[in-house]
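Sequence, please.
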């Protein structure tokens, strides 16, 4: 009888195990993980330092070059406008740097790209195509010759307005 009971118990375990195996079913599927990186561009401030200007009626013009950076998440077409600066029209020209005295100004002009071929007048947009990552935008400038000015530091701040497409 003991043997019979052990056999019954074993048969019960085997039946439960078989039943469990028959009920355990595996199903598989996938989980799609996504993200979207929005197209975006930022612009970083730059500097254009003309250096020393020799003022006077016989003074030659002085050229300078500077850069600012545009950073985009993907290649983009951009339009960049430069405003007239803090002293627009103050010195009789479109843009002027303010000097040490109340009425001390040096007129200057900005140009896009090399060779001073394209005047970057206030509010005029220049179209560029940029790559993803950092892109250096060159700004050339010229202080017209023959200006009389008091000795000292002259400066202006021009806003960069960028639109990207």
């Amino acid at each position: 009888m003991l043997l019979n009971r052990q056999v019954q118990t074993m048969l019960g375990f085997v039946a439960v195990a078989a039943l469990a195996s028959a009920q355990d079913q595996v199903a598989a599927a996938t989980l799609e993980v996504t993200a979207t990186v929005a197209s975006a561009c930022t612009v970083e401030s730059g500097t254009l330092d003309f250096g020393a200007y020799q003022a006077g009626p016989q003074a030659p013009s002085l050229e300078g070059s500077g850069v600012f950076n545009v950073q985009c998440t993907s290649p983009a077409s951009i339009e960049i406008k430069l405003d007239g600066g803090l002293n627009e029209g103050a010195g009789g020209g479109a843009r002027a740097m303010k000097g040490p005295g109340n009425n001390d100004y040096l007129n200057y002009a900005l140009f896009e790209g090399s060779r001073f071929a394209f005047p970057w007048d206030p509010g005029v947009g220049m179209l560029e195509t940029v790559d993803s990552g950092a892109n250096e935008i060159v700004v050339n400038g010229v202080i017209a010759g023959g200006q009389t000015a008091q000795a000292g530091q002259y400066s202006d701040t021009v806003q960069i307005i960028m639109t990207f497409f």
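Helices lie at 2-23.
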